[in-house]
Design a protein that fits this description.
Length: about 325
Amino acid sequence: MASITYRGPRQWLVRVRRKGFPLQSKTLDTKAQAEAWVRQIEGEMDRGIFVSRAEAECTTLAEALERYIQEYLPQLKHPPREISRARWIQRQPLATMFLAAIRGKDIAVFRDALAADGRAANTIRLHLAMLSRLFNVACREWGMESLRNPVDLVRKPKLPPGRDRRLQEGEEQRLLVALNDQGRTPWMVPLVRMALETAMRMGELLALRWERIDLIRKTAYLPETKNGTPRTVPLSPAAIALLKAMPRDLSGRVFPLTPSAVEQAWQRATQRADIEGLRFHDLRHEATSRLFEKGFSLMEVAAITGHKTLQMLKRYTHLRAEDLAARL
């Protein structure tokens, strides 16, 4: 049995009562919308596919994000970064809407607002990915089976092509000289040289410990990597010589530096060496490309760098045309 009550402008209260089902109620803008909602609910009850929308219709996105922060995000590898993103979304107008009311159009407005604010395409994709995971978790684990994921309905921004910045002639020498002249730490020059020898990420290098380096077998073990898979990195003769000549810190870390300290030293050194547009992560691109230029196969390079897919490996590989011409 259904009842529709007019309670004022744009307030049509609908109640659906049926034996064996919980009371369903909702307030809609027009009587036509109310009648359509009744037909939908009663039709689902008749066909045995009814799922209560009550929780999804009374939970705002901000409230769902709070539960997501407390229950789901602590399981991730880097919770603080994701928590910060979730907190930011909680302060946006979209967060005041109820989950069941959010449609693809609303997600598209949110996406376009981020783009208008100058957010990078990858940043927008990360925000949309968080919202998509939230809706999936709410549907599969929080008992809101009636929810549809509105993020699946919208177009994602196209990512720009991968960076192809490589060291130009003379830049490596000028960079190492500038880092050495700073004289504030004995670890920056070895850090850069090790990055070029191993293709390891900055985070992997800064987490590297002496007990995980085997100078006899010429390997370095990384228990934690960006993609979550441990790997053992082979060390070249130059890397072995570099490690043997390095001082050892009481902390047991090979490079007892913080990411911010590395970035500051890097910025000062590149300015002093008159090098533009070069980031520390570009050393990984350079090292990966050098491995191919030395004749290593795709699978061999992937084993060294830790790339899981050849598509990602391709983004990090930029072979110089003059080197290819020389091989021809």
